[in-house]
TrEMBL record:
It comes from Dictyobacter alpinus. The chain crosses the membrane at residues 6-26, 33-55, 61-84, 96-119, 179-204, 224-247, 288-310, 317-342, 348-366, 373-394, 423-442, 524-544, 550-567, 574-594, 614-632, 653-673. The lineage of its organism: Bacteria, Bacillati, Chloroflexota, Ktedonobacteria, Ktedonobacterales. This is Chlor_Arch_YYY domain-containing protein. Keywords: Membrane, Transmembrane, Transmembrane helix. InterPro entries: DUF2298. Pfam families: DUF2298.
Length: 850
């Protein structure tokens, strides 16, 4: 476990060094981005190492090079600290509780998953070989782009940047890839948790500050970040710990059956032909796929979009600050968002789109009115610059990458999600979000009491007292005006104007006219909503399989409408925006799917639902955590006029709270049952399944003692040979090992050493390179490789064997138990007659071309 603490300490140092930059970039957030400093520090280090390596392939990807970049960044950070240390120290003192909480959450979540991984750290089964192979091959590659461990002579044609990010940290710490696999998944778990906590706390704290400005009009030194703790913790709980209701349904249905064993995999396969992974499942599985590793950085992008959304008055590039800092902040924003594509291409459109929407609304508010040429020009220029820069910064990746995407398709009517399935996946989220929508509609938005917040009362010739009318309650009564007031009617609502001078009635009439326009817009909105609902009913009648799509779109539309209704409180509006994006994603998956290698079968939507539902879960987790604050706040300020109404309100709140508590408890079934089922062991010495702490995070350690039936043979011989290869073979020479089908034990040498081999797991290579294989030459080369591996192990002519190896620049041949099982009739000892034996022990022989 000491390696886990090493990883934690390194990330802590990177976060500390990145604090000045974080304070500059996240200047609009209450915590100035304190919670995001670790994620930003990791991203900046990774980019500053990757950028020169990919543009200058002759540069070595070595520990010394990474240390050099680290020291340069440390020097720059030291200079920035000299300028900002007072500001940083003041922020730390004022929000000490928040700062300490961030550190406790980060370390605690890393240790939580680390303790589970220590029960069974094995890199075995599922697709762990693939992900470990990426980390190992990246760490072993002397230059960039990194090698593909299963297609010698080619670079990785996959979204490898998140794997590379971990590999860079591991190289700096000198951790082996098999250890970095486990310390890395724990690091990403902790990083995701602290970013979730930071976004939610900043939303709630910003809303509290808004209420303070509206109601008190006096500065308050109280830290609203501390008040936001429960909601930040709730976001972490919902996002990373709780499961879905499908797990609860499984337990409720089968727990009384004799010998019931919880199927911890089942809740991630609710909708036929698709995958609906959620973070608790993914991290419990220790899925090292791109969508999991990128989760922490997508949450960071949500924080960046929030920072843009909260910018009070910046027009155009002033959105990012003043002076040269605006260009630095734009650059950092482009680095973070642009990196999402080469980490996981599915995430980039969603979070770039979210950021652009946030910028568009902010620009509209800053310019006023929205539909004017300057607004479109300034906002459009910022948006285009951000998109272009995010692409150009990672241009070498695009030049070396052939996307497996084959376009966008329309989902067949036979493959849609049912409402019941969606409820099993998102039941808790839907309940909280519906509660948020209802309470938002009943809530009376807080408005500034004066035309301009910066104008004093003595400078205002009249004060407009407009009742804060909820969306569903119009025509509120106001007492008749006193002699110094004038009262007007504006579309069913009373407007009372306190007139300082009789001559100012003209100005008052203008305000009343504006109020009438407001209510006219409300009537237009409700008329449009009614037409939309009617249209939904028509669609459902004609196309009943679009039920989920229509329901999700209706929730998204209501959220967008209420967003503009609550826009005075931008943090509140942003929460609604996150929910709208999430349900738009869910609706979109019912209509469109991204064509890939699975497009022609029943699993046409598999990857689309897989990747986009994972995003929706993250968005709804923040929306639910922060949304609960707004729900409770709305209930607190909900006005009732009679004792009976107050009792009714208490009853409704009590029932609502009971349902919420029940749903949270139901969602706890998954973490309580799945953890034991995932890591339990069974052997002849114990009558029942048990847990055992291995006291290691080395994912390769199990090879030293794995026997049949858990492994297909005694792997202890491979364990020693692989350790020898890692200790004695430098660089990236090609090694020949037996090829096999996906999800098996084939490829174990290339996986645990990072040495490229001719071909392995061909099914996965096809998934990554489906469009690359459209080239006849590439297709011919790919198809020949398995034949050539067989030829090397079985052909009796040494010259033919050596010529085949030379075609791929292969220098080593590995002969172990798996090779003997694959080629039982071949003479696998003949290689010693024309090659040098560099290793021979325990039934494994490694030959090298002389």
């Amino acid at each position: 476990m000491s390696e886990l603490l090493q990883m934690w300490m390194l990330v802590e140092v990177l976060g500390l060094l990145c604090l000045p930059l974080t304070f500059t970039v996240f200047r609009n957030l209450p915590d100035r981005g304190w919670a995001f400093s670790k994620a930003l520090g990791v991203i900046i280090l990774a980019f500053c190492v990757w950028f020169p390596l990919i543009y200058l392939p002759s540069l070595p990807y070595s520990q010394l090079f990474v240390i050099g970049i680290f020291l340069i960044l440390a020097a720059c950070s030291g200079f920035a600290f000299m300028l900002l240390w007072r500001e940083i120290l003041q922020q730390a003192r004022r929000h000490l509780g928040y700062v300490v909480s961030c550190e406790v959450i980060f370390l605690g979540m890393m240790l939580l998953l680390g303790s589970l991984r220590a029960l069974r750290p094995d890199i075995h089964n599922f697709e762990m070989f693939m992900d470990e192979g990426f980390v190992a091959s990246i760490m072993r590659s002397p230059h960039f782009p990194p090698n593909d461990m299963w297609l010698a002579g080619h670079s990785i044609n996959y979204y490898y940047y998140a794997h590379y990010t971990l590999a860079t940290l591991a190289k700096l710490l000198n951790q082996s890839p098999s250890v970095a696999f486990n310390t890395g998944i724990c690091f990403f778990y902790g990083l995701t948790a602290i970013n979730l906590f930071g976004v939610t706390c900043n939303i709630v704290a910003s809303s509290c500050q808004h209420r303070q400005r509206i109601e008190d009009q006096t500065p308050d030194e109280k830290s609203y970040l501390e008040l936001a703790f429960p909601y930040g913790l709730l976001s972490i709980l919902i996002a990373l710990v709780l499961g879905n209701l499908a797990a609860t349904q499984q337990w409720w249905t089968h727990h009384a059956e004799p010998g019931f064993i919880f199927d911890w995999f089942g809740p991630s396969r609710v909708i036929d032909g698709t995958i609906n992974e959620f973070p608790a499942f993914s991290f419990l599985l220790s899925c090292f796929h791109a969508h999991v590793l990128t989760l922490a950085f997508t949450i960071l992008c949500i924080g960046l979009a929030l920072n843009c959304f909260l910018e009070p008055s910046g027009k155009g590039f002033a959105l990012f600050g003043t002076g040269w800092l605006r260009y630095l902040n734009l650059l950092v924003t482009a680095i973070v968002i642009g990196g999402l594509f080469i980490m996981n291409g599915w995430d980039y459109p969603t979070y770039m789109g979210l950021t652009l929407v946030a910028i568009g609304i902010q620009q509209g508010l800053a310019h006023q009115p929205w539909l004017r040429l300057s607004t479109l020009l300034n906002g459009g220029l910022v948006a285009i610059s951000l998109v272009v820069l995010s692409y150009v910064l990672y241009l070498p990746f695009y030049l070396n990458f052939i996307s497996p995407s084959q376009g966008i398709g329309i989902a067949s009517s036979n493959y849609h999600s049912s409402i019941s399935g969606e409820m099993l996946i998102y039941g808790l989220f839907i309940f909280i979000f519906l509660s948020l929508l209802v309470s938002s509609a009943l809530h009376r938005p807080l408005r500034h009491p004066s035309p301009t917040a910066s104008t004093s009362d003595s400078q205002i010739p009249f004060i407009v007292d407009v009742p804060r009318t909820p969306l569903f309650a119009v025509g509120q009564h106001i007492e008749p005006a006193s002699p110094v007031y004038a009262e007007y009617q504006a579309e069913g609502a009373s407007v009372r104007v306190a007139v300082a001078e009789v001559e100012d009635h003209v100005e008052a009439e203008k305000i009343v006219t504006a109020q009438r326009l407001k209510w006219r817009r409300l009537r237009i909105f409700w008329s449009s909503l009614a037409l939309f609902l009617v249209g939904c009913l028509v669609v459902l009648y004609l196309f009943p399989y679009y039920t989920t799509c229509v329901a999700a779109l209706a929730l998204a539309l209501l959220s967008v409408s209420l967003l503009f209704y609550q826009l005075e409180n931008r943090a509140y509006a942003y929460t609604l925006l996150l929910g709208a994006v999430a349900f738009t994603i869910i609706a979109g998956c019912e209509i469109f799917f991204l064509k890939d290698v699975f497009s022609d079968g029943t699993a046409q939507r598999m990857n689309t639902v897989f990747k986009f539902y994972f995003q929706a879960w993250a968005l709804l987790s923040i929306c639910s955590g922060a949304g609960l604050y707004f729900i409770l706040d709305n209930l607190r300020y909900l006005q009732v006029s009679t004792q009976k109404a107050r009792w009714i309100r208490r009853g409704v709140v009590g029932v609502w709270g009971s349902i919420l508590a029940l749903l949270i408890l139901a969602s706890m079934v998954y973490p309580l049952l799945a953890s034991f089922t995932r890591y339990q062991r069974v052997d002849s010495t114990h009558p029942r399944p048990f847990l055992m702490n291995t006291r290691t995070l080395d994912g390769m350690a199990y090879l030293a003692h794995c026997q049949v039936p858990e492994c297909i043979y005694d792997t202890s011989t491979d364990y020693e040979a692989i350790r020898w290869l890692n200790a004695h073979v430098s660089g990236d020479p090609v090694i020949v090992e037996a090829s096999g089908q996906d999800y098996g034990y084939a490829g174990r040498v290339s996986v645990f050493t990072g040495l490229p081999t001719l071909i392995n797991w061909p099914g996965h290579e096809v998934q990554w390179r489906i469009n690359w294989a459209n080239d006849p030459a590439n297709r011919a080369d790919f198809g020949r490789r398995s034949v050539d591996v067989d030829k090397i192990y079985t052909h009796r002519d040494p010259g033919e064997v050596l010529a085949t190896m030379q075609r791929y620049n292969a220098q080593y041949i590995y002969v172990g138990s798996f090779e003997h099982k694959t080629y039982p009739d071949a003479d696998l000892q003949r290689f010693g007659k024309f090659m040098a034996i560099v290793y021979q022990a325990h039934g494994v022989t490694i030959y090298k071309v002389a």
